[in-house]
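User: Please fill in residues for this 229-position structure.
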């Protein structure tokens, strides 16, 4: 097996977590996923509301979801939308440049050039196979909850990704799934009062896959922090 080594400290987990987009088929023990979720749910939340709900898919259930949503992606492209707005309606700087950079850095690694729409579409489609990860998660939230609960949700998601690193696993959070809530809903029996937040691929990294060599940039400390004395 070709595994990424386990993180021994929190800072190592933080610094080795990356969104990976190619996984080995090696199965992940269900007991490990359960342990990660129990620990991740120690995340703080306003008045301890714990707004997270997670659907863990492996085996046939995972395949059914992947097939259904990949099919929807192929046939209902024009109808896709999310019930919640993750990205701004109108892009502006500096966010648009950062978004473009990460996209083109990934496509460059994959040998996809500007204008190759079919290839970019096929790469996007890999989201709906959880990038071949054996564990897929769909996260949902009660539709009547507010912004604060979405903030809490992010902490829960980050905990999962860091705990994954501690266990030699890698992950990719995936907003892409939220666009296909209509196709997802019947497959996982998602109640009408829940909305899809995002998905997540979890598994062992394929360290030989070129797309997994992507290291994303970060703004320098001075670019986002102001120290007032
Ligand atoms: C909530 C959330 C949703 C994301 N959705 C997707 C997605 O649908 N597909 C994908 O390939 N990457 C997705 N990403 C990964 C981001 O592109 C990635 O976090 C960013 O480029 C920084 O790279 P890093 O995670 O490797 O540090 C998502 C990240 C977050 C936090």
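Assistant: Residues filled in for all 229 positions:
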């Amino acid at each position: 097996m070709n595994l990424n080594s386990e993180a021994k400290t929190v800072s190592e987990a933080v610094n080795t977590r990356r969104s990976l987009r190619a996984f080995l088929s090696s199965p992940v023990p269900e007991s490990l996923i359960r342990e990660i979720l129990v620990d991740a749910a120690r995340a703080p939340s306003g008045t301890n509301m714990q707004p997270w709900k997670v659907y863990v898919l492996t085996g046939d259930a995972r395949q059914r979801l992947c097939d259904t949503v990949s099919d929807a992606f192929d046939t209902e492209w024009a109808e896709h939308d999310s019930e919640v707005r993750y990205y701004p309606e109108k892009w502006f700087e500096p966010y648009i440049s950062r978004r473009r950079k990460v996209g083109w850095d990934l496509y460059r690694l994959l040998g996809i050039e500007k204008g190759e729409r079919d290839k970019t579409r096929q790469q996007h489609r890999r989201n709906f196979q959880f990038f071949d990860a054996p564990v897929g998660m769909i996260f949902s939230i009660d539709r009547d909850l507010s912004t604060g609960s979405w903030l809490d949700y992010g902490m829960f998601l980050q905990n999962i990704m860091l705990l994954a690193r501690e266990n030699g696993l890698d992950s990719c959070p995936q907003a892409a799934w939220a666009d296909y809530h209509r196709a997802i809903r019947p497959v996982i029996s998602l109640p009408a009062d829940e909305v899809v937040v995002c998905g997540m691929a979890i598994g062992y990294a394929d360290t030989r896959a070129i797309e997994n060599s992507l290291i994303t940039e970060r703004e320098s400390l001075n670019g986002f922090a102001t120290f007032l004395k």
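For context: Residues 18-19, 21, 102, 127, 172-176, 198, 216 surround flavin mononucleotide (CB under 6 Å).
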